[in-house]
Sequence to fold (285 residues):
Amino acid sequence: MKGAKERRLVNYHTHTWRCLHAQGTEAAYVRRAIDLGFEVLGFADHTPWPYEDDFVSGMRMRLNELQGYLDTVAALRQRYAEKLLIPVGLECEAFPAYMGWLADIKAERLDYLILGNHYDMTDEGDHSAFDDAGGFYFGRCTRPEHVLRYAKRTIAGMETGLFDYVAHPDLFCHTYGVFDAECAAASRDICAAARALDIPLEYNLLGIQYHARGCEAGMLGYPCARFWEIAAEQGCRAIIGFDAHSPEQLDRLDIYDGAVAFLDTLKIERLPHLNRPGCVPRREE
Ligand SMILES: [Zn+2]
Ligand SMILES: [Zn+2]
Fold:
């Protein structure tokens, strides 16, 4: 096992109890990260959206909880300033109607944003149903058209210029059976866009834990080796994300080491940290 310092542990993909499907307070994640020797622990909980109707999502904080999230992380950042860098961001889809709102929030209050393209829009119109209120979940792709749609929406998200990296870019593989021509085309398109726009792609450690637990057995799953071979060919840059939905998921340094070894084998450039104000470990500044 490597020592903590040798690993240079950073993670910008941490959830909290606020999203309703993760466990643990912000403080619990922070204490765990300090114990494990992390240099950076960034929070990127699932964003709330300013829905036009009274829809309440079951997988994200409510809009009126955003201030509490920001205040809580800010207090921890100050309290543990000597031990851990704690930037604050959000993980977001790229629903067009809300991108202006998101740009304002980012400029005023956030250190970074990650694109987590979980849900499709139900239509292209300006309506609040472009979200988990009724949109297709891209973690359930089973048909070629789902995969191609995922690629199209992911690239549109990258093109907004708002996102600092793409979370689980190969989410479309989660419940897909075989890596077919559409998967290859989607992977090439996503990776080419990431390269052209200079946006890193996340190698997602939560996906490995799903697969190791036997979730979606027999499916491709993510991270998908074939996707990452294409990312390497295209010259993409990678960043490892724990996508922690409980403090204990930060413990899996064995999986982290395996991810580093795999990416090194592919000779993909791995980002040591995000190059954004508030996101750079102190010793790199
Ligand atoms: Zn989640
Ligand atoms: Zn996530």
